[in-house]
Description:
Elements: H1 2-29, E1 40-43, E2 63-68, E3 73-78, E4 84-88, E5 92-94
Antiparallel strand pairs: 1-2, 1-5, 2-3, 3-4
Amino acid sequence: MNKLDELRRESYESSRIYKERLNLFHDKNIVRKAFEPHQRVLLYISYLHIFPGKLRSRWTDPFIVKVVHPYGAVEIENLETGKIFKVNGQRLNPFLENFDRQESGEELVDPLYQEVPSV
């Protein structure tokens, strides 16, 4: 009976250690984002993930951050409708304003194909 109780305690202890390590690994991979009021952000729409299509963007128009709550909750305002709602901060991405693409001076040309002699 004593042996059985000892085995049970060891298994509980090993599962507790495993859970702690898994939580540390998971928490290490979470990216912390800091948002400020009046900052423009993009919102990730998760339901578009089920629809296949490479050209469909899953990030919607810029929103404005109204209030940043503790533990990652953020209140954002839609610029078009003025509606304010609360979302998880992990679903937001900073909006890069005045992003200038450097235009390369190279012009693309069509490749020249040569016929391969048949053997």
